[in-house]
Amino acid sequence: MIRALCAAVLLTAVPLSASLPAPAARAGTMPLQATTGAACARITAPPPESAPPTSVNTLRQAYECVLDNYYSGPTLDSKVLLRDALAAYTQELMRRGADRPGLRLPALTGNRDADWAAFAGMVGAGDPEALRAAITGMVAGLHDDHARVERITPPSGDGPVGTGIAGLSAAQGPRLDPAARPPLFITRVLPGSPADRAGVRPGDIVEKVDGIPAFIGDKVNQSLVDAFASGTVRLTLKRPTTGRVRTVKLTEGPLEEQERAVTSKALPGGVTYVKVPGFFEGAADQVIAALKDTSTTAVIDLRGNGGGSPREVTRLLGAFAHGKVTSYFCPLKGDCTANRTDDSVPLLGLRLVVLTDRACASACEDFSAAVKDNDLGTLVGTRTAGAVSGPAEAYLLDDNSVLLLPRVRHLGPARELIDTVGVPVDHYAPMTALDLAKGRDPGLAKALSLL
Predict the structure, then answer these.
(1) Domain boundary among 194, 222, 254
(2) Residue closest to 319 by CA, chosen among 291, 361, 358, 355
(3) Residues in Cβ contact with 30 at an 8 Å cutoff, skipping those fewer than 6 apart
(4) How far is 214 from 217, CA to CA, in rounded Å?
(5) Where in this chain does the record put each PDZ domain (predicted)?
(6) Is residue 220 part of a domain?
C-alpha cells in the first residue's frame, strides 16, 4: 500500500504467498546468498543485511527465474519480457536526464538465450538504479497480483515510523481500487501517531492530497499513490459530521508497535463478533478460542484482511465443516491439487456470518469463497478485492532482493477463477464515511438483522 499510509501499519497480514524473512544480522549464522553467475535461489534463510548493487547479472537471474519458475513461464515470450524490462530501464534513465542515444531494443527471435545475449550486449554494464527498475517493470508486465520484487530492509533500531493513517477506503494493495466510488475517506488512524495528534479521525473525507484531487469525475485518482510516497503529505480533509474542511500537514514520526492479534466481543443472543486482521500464523486458533463459549452464531469480520497463510484458512474452515474442498491450486499443465478443510479441528456447530470488503484479499478471499461455495455461512458487506492469483514462492537474487512468483493458479471450490473478479456478497452493506465518523457499522448491523 501507499508508503506514507502503510509505513504506519506494521504488517497485520501477509499475502497468500511465501512470507519474507527479515534480513540477517551481520553477526550470527551465515544466510543463503545468491552468487554471481548462479541462478536465482529459493529462499531458505534470511537475506544478508548489506545489499550489493544491482547488475546486469541480477536482471539475467530475474529473467531466467521468471521463465523457469513462474506459473506460465514455459509459454512466456522472451521478447515481451525483455521489451518490458527495457521500457522500464529507459524510463528510469529519462527521469534522471541520463538517457543514452544508442539504447534501443535489438532484434529478438524468441530464443531465450539468444535474446538475452543480444539484450545484454546492448545494455552493457548497465546503470544499477535503472536495472532495478527493469526488473520491477519486467515482473509488473506479468500482470499478476502475487508476482513482485521486494528489497528487504533491516528494521530500524528506533522502531517503526509513519503518518499513522493505517487505512483508506479505496486502498487495495499497492494501488487504489479502480472500482472505488467517491468519496475517499480514512478508515483507520493509529493512536498516538502524527495523524492522531493532528486530529485526523476515521471517516474524514480526503478531498485532496498535496493539492491533487482524490477523484477525477467518478474515478479514483491513481496518481495519489505517488503523492503519498513522500515522508510528508498535505491532506485536505472534510469532516462528514460537520462539513468542516481543513488542511493538515503530516510528517512521518515514531509509531507504537502494532501486535497482530484477533479481537472479539460478545453480543446479545449468543453471538460472538471476531475481528481477524490477517491469516497470520496462529490466527485460526485464536479465532477458535474466541468462539469456544459461543452458543449460536459467529460473526467473523474479515474487512481489511490482506491475506496470509492458506494453512490458517483450511484450519479455521475446519471448525465449521469437515470433508469439504476449500480451493484448488492448479499448474499450467496437469491436475489441480484440492485443498481441504482441516478435519482434525473439532466442529464448533455455529451459524456463520462473514463480513468482507474490497480490502479482503488473497487468503481472505480463499476463506470467503470456501464459505460461499460450500454454503457454510452468509457473506455481508461488499465484493472482495479479486487479488488471489496463487501462492507465491520466494527467490533470492544476487543483489539480495527477493523475487516472488506464483507457480500455480488459485481456483475456488467450484473451480471458478476468483482473481481479478472477487467474491460477491449475499447482502450488500458498505461502510460510508458518515458511518465511520458516527461510530456506526452497517455491515455488523446487517449481519445481526439476519439472525
Answers:
(1) 254
(2) 291
(3) none
(4) 10
(5) 148-237
(6) yes
